[in-house]
Design a protein that fits this description.
Length: 228
């Protein structure tokens, strides 16, 4: 009788050992849980700046992008005064990782799929200058000697503001052209940045899905010296 009880107890112990072993084998390793938790911290980055371009444009004649008002006065100063306009602006390319459409999907074995939100852009007009071809020197945006010529044609402070607004519209058009041309470089920069951070968290492999940026608002800001 004692032998039978001992045998039954031994069988129960073996069965319990097998059950616990199988359960632990099926359970996700703690390291993978830690990696998944760590990579979620990418959201705390907030706005991820991945690319910046600074460019200059030389305007010697006006086109439709300046609008009727801008073209009217710029055509006068560029042709009659024999000047060129130097237009300098910078564009920042960013991703907001706090948006709900930024997703980190665990695909198993320390691999993750990153679904990126649409890229948004900020364009900053850094400076606007006129280049006097006759005297071979630069003149800041709408200096008094330029304004005096404008005033002969009824140019007022309100007109100046309208001309600045026309410059903003022109900058937006030029910025959107650059944004379209640089999309692949921007995405490559975002990948490199996030891959570097994720590997530090232990993620072995990342794949990316980028959402289209069409229709995203483009913010145009002015440096103080360009608006004055």
């Amino acid at each position: 009788m004692d032998a039978i009880l001992l045998m039954l107890a031994l069988i129960l112990v073996i069965a319990l050992f097998v059950f616990l072993t199988v359960s632990m084998w099926k359970k996700k390793p703690a390291s993978e849980v830690t990696i998944h938790s760590s990579i979620q911290q990418l959201r705390t980055i907030g706005q991820l700046s991945v690319f910046k371009v600074i460019t200059k444009e030389i305007v010697t004649e006006t086109d439709h992008s300046w609008g009727e008002f801008g073209a009217k006065y710029l055509r006068w100063v560029l042709s009659k005064k024999k000047m060129a306009m130097i237009f300098e602006f910078a564009i920042d390319f960013r991703y907001d990782l706090r948006r709900p459409d930024f997703k980190i999907i665990d695909t198993g074995q320390d691999s993750y799929k990153i679904v990126m939100p649409p890229c948004f852009f900020e364009a900053h007009i850094r400076d606007i200058q006129f280049y006097d071809e006759q005297r071979s020197k630069f003149l800041p945006w709408l200096l008094p000697d330029l304004l005096s010529g404008f005033l002969l044609d009824g140019f007022s402070e309100e007109h100046k503001n309208k001309l600045v607004s026309a410059a903003k519209n022109h900058a937006e058009m030029q910025a959107r052209q650059l944004i379209g041309n640089l999309e692949s470089e921007v995405q490559s920069s975002a990948k490199a940045t996030l891959q570097s951070i994720s590997k530090a968290f232990g993620a072995e492999q990342l794949t990316f899905e980028f959402r289209p940026s069409e229709g995203e608002a483009l913010t145009i800001e002015y440096a103080k010296k360009a608006a004055g």
